[in-house]
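Quick one - first record:
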Amino acid sequence: MALKMVIPKGKLYDNVAEILSDIGLTLVGDSRNYRPALFGCDIEVKLLKSQNIPEMVALGQHDIGFAGLDWIEEQSADVEILEDLAFNPVKIVACIPEQWDWEQVKQRKIIVASEYKKIASSYLDSQNLDYQLFRAYGATEVFPPEDADMVIDNTSTGSTIRANRLKIVGTVMQSSTQLIANKQVLSNPEKKKQIDDLLLLMRGVLNGRKRVLLEMNCSQDNIDTIVSLLPAMRSPTVSQLYNADGFAIKAAIERRLTKDLLPQLIAAGATDILETPIRKVL
C-alpha cells in the first residue's frame, strides 16, 4: 500500500529532497513538477504550497508531509508532529516603523497586517492591544507606515525587516519545518511501519549531521591525556597500531566542538588527525 507524502514547493523543496537523498530515496523532478517520482520505495509524492499542507494532512488527503510549525498553529491542524527537522528556522515577530516609539504607539488603536490571522490575533490579545487586523498576501513588510502601523511576519535573518526600516517590538513564536502525519493513518499497521522506518532513517541523518568522526594516532605516553579530551558518544575506540608503538583512536564528536578540540588534541600529541562527515547515527 503506497504511502502518500506531500512536500512543500519552493525554497523548502531542496531541504526535503536532500534529507530524502541522504536516507537513500531519490526524488526525481523539481519544484515545478507537482508530482515528482520517489525511487526506492512505495511512496507517492505530491507538491503543494506549504500553507496548504497541514490541513491536507489533517483531512487525510495525504498520510505524511513537511510543514512549518507556524502554519500548523495558524490552521489549528489536528495532525501528529513526528519530528522537528529544524529546516528553515524562523521567528514570527511584531514590527513597527523604526523611528516610532512603541510605548506611544500601543496607547492607541493600531492597524496590523499579517498572513497569520489566528496567530496574530492571539498575540495581540495577549498584549491587551486595541487593534484592527487584516490579512496580507505576501510582502507584508511593505504596508507600514502608510497602510499599517504594525506587521506580524516571519523572519530568518531580519535583513528584510531592516531593509524596510522596521524594528522588532515583540517575538510571537519560533517555527521550523516539522514532519507531520495524519492521526488516523497511524492506526494502519502497514503504513505505520513505513512511517516508523522513514522516521528512524531521518533521525539517523539528523543525528549524523551534528557529528563528525575523528581519527588520530598517538603514542603510549599521551594516550590517556588524548582520550580524556574526547567527548565521544560513549567512549572512543582505541586499537594498537600494527607493528608500532602507538595507538589509533576513533571517536564520534559533535561538529560544533571540533574548532576548539582539534588544537587541544594536537597540543596533547595526537598525530595524523582525520575528520570525516557521518551520514547517519542510528
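second record:
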Amino acid sequence: MDWMIAGGTVLRDGVLAPGEVALSGGFIAAEAAGGARRLDATGLLVMPGLVDIHGDAHERQMQPRPGIGFPAGLGMRDSAAQLLAAGITTACLGVTLSWEPGLRGIEAWRATLAAVEAVRPAAGCDLRIHCRFEADNLDALDELLADMAAGRVHLLAFNDHTPGIVKRIADPAKAAAYAARAGVKAADFIALAERAAAMRPDVPAARQRLADAARARGIPMLSHDDATPAMRATFRALGAAVCEFPMSEAVAEAARAEGEAVVMGAPNVVRGGSHMGWASAAPLAERGLVTVLASDYYWPAMLEAAFVIEARGVLDLARAWALVSANPAAAAGLADRGRIAAGLRGDVVVVDAARRAPVATFAAGRLAWLAPGAAARIA
C-alpha cells in the first residue's frame, strides 16, 4: 500500500518546513502514486524513523525478574511492538555474549538470534543483532565467528566487563545479585568469573580474529566503555570506528579528533546525567563530542532526548534529531535510512511535538503502528 503523509512539518535536508512525504513500494518516493492512502499530519512533525544503534531493553521481555524467563519469541514480538510505539524503525538489539550463564550466556544468545530471525519478517521494525562480545568468553569465539560468517550479526562491540565483575563479587551481596541473573549459586558464579579472568592472556589474539572477520564481512565495530584515549586507540587499531559509551570527556575528544562516531545513551540526556556517574551526554552533544544517542536500556528515551536537547537551546530540533536518526544510521553502516529523501527506505515517524509522542510509525513504507485516535487522520 502506498501512502501520502500530507499537511505536516517535514524534516528534510536538515530543515523543518511544511511539506509532504510520499511512500511507495517500501521507499520514500518523489511523488505519490495514484490511489495512495493519505494521512493528515496537520499540526504534526514528519520525521525520519529512529535508528537505535544499541538497546538491550528486550532483555526485560525475556527475563522480567531475575531468574524468571519467558520464551524468546514471545519476548521479541512484544519488543517489536514497543519499539514501533517509540518511533524506532531500526533496532540494533544489544545481545550480550558472555561467559555468564543465563540471560547473557550462549544459550540465550542462540535463542535470541533464532527469535529475531523468526519474528523479523512480520515485526515491522527492522530488527538487527548488535553482538556485545565479552572479552574473556573465549569458549564462544568459534560459534560467534560462524554466526558472523552466516550474516547473523550486524554490529560487533568489544565488551570487557570481567575485571569489574571480579572486583564487585568480593561483596557477597553483589555476588548474589550476579548469580541470580545468571541462575546459578553465588559460589558457582564466582568460580566462573575466576575461570574467565584466567583466559585474559589469550584475549588480544581472540579480538584480532574477531576484528579480521568483521572487516571481511563489512560488519561495523564498536569499542565499549573506553576509559582512556589510549584504550580508544587500541580499538581504533583493530578497526573499531565507533566509540560507544566513553567513560570520560577526554575519550570522546580523542575519538572525535579522528572523525569517529561517539555513542552515548538517550536516558543520560533525559535524566540529566549518567546513572553510572560518568560523562553527561547533553553538553557533549552540544559541543559535537557525542554524535549518536542510543536507547541503551529504555526505548522511549530516544525521541524524548531529541526534544530535551532542543529545549536546552543550543541545538535546534533538526540537529538534535540527527543524533537519533541520520547519525546512528551512518555509524551502523546503513546508508539507506535515517533521512527523508527520495529512494531511501520508507521509515517515517509522525510526531506530536506538544506531547513529545509518536502518532504514527511507518516502517519500510508500511503503516506499522498508529496511536489511539489517530485513525481519524487516515483517508
